[in-house]
Amino acid sequence: MRKIINSTYISLDGVIEEPHLWQSLPSDRGDTGNQVQVDLLYACDAVLMGRRTYDVFSPVWQSRSGDPYSDRINTMEKYVVSSTLKDPDWANTKVIDGDVVKEIGRLKEQPGQDIVQYGFGDVSFALLEAGLLDELRLWVHPQFVGRGGLGELLFRETTPTVLRLLDTTTLGNGIVILSYALD
Asked: How many domains is the chain partitioned into structurally?
């Protein structure tokens, strides 16, 4: 069965929303960080996103090509959970509307590589509560964003869940990637 691997940027104060707007976000993850991102994408053959992540990713990645990451993500199958998106313009994008847990459970059972999910919001919490999320990779950024309402923080009320540390990677710019399996 395919795994769903969530990869999320988070600040020290728990903010997960709009990391591309964080003032002190290091613009260069270095060779190791870039390779971690590319390796994850090539270990997967589908991308899963909520609507807000799609709205940020789609215009950025569609306009890029010529590097391993953008060439891969632009050709992969993409699944967007949304009740309002009807006609996505990003190639190979399908909309999941309706019973999200059932549809994503069906995707996990199909043959293929793993599925990467970017961003941690309502879709991620639904997957967590349904036992469909297999791995969480938190890219901990060494900064306090200093703002963030309930929808912008990782914290939300949810089912208590124990995670098992799989790996830690420290990048030269101070970002630490914590990889956890969900037991």
From this structure: 1
